[in-house]
What does this fold into?
Amino acid sequence: MSSTATPPDPAPVGAELHWRALEALYASAPINALFDSVLEVSGEGRARITFTVDHRFYHAAGAAHGTIYFKMLDDAAFYAANTLVSDRFLLTTSFNLHFSRPVKSGRVTAEGRWISGHRRVLVAESRLIDADGEEIGRGTGTFQRSRIALSSLPGYSPAQLG
It folds into this structure.
């Protein structure tokens, strides 16, 4: 009897190592323990967060409060921008958002995409898509390099991923 073993996935290197470390950083943030959410960095300038909306996030009229829209739109745009910066943590300096439709429950995806900037200030946009594939919100953010080294943050650990 012969068996064919599937070789393990190769360890991430280069930019992919940075992207996996960003995913770990997201997962380590205490605020994210409050949400059923997962960050996936799919490439340079791209990030996606999937999360579940339920009654815990409702405002008085029985739909998701705008804070959940802001948090997920900001995070998706932020991480899309931070894929291009491997030495510093970015800070949101401004964020504009537009609400398209209310959402009451289900899986929602925040898709972030870097638009411009490389050095000091970066611009990224994001959109929220509900379980039916409908856009429910959109945002654009400006992100600035901080003085905080990514390597100084306990959740960001590319050396442990390699």
Summary: The domain at 14-156 is CATH 3.10.129.10 (Thiol Ester Dehydrase; Chain A). The chain has three helices and six strands. Strands lie at 37-43, 46-53, 88-99, 106-116, 121-129, 135-149.
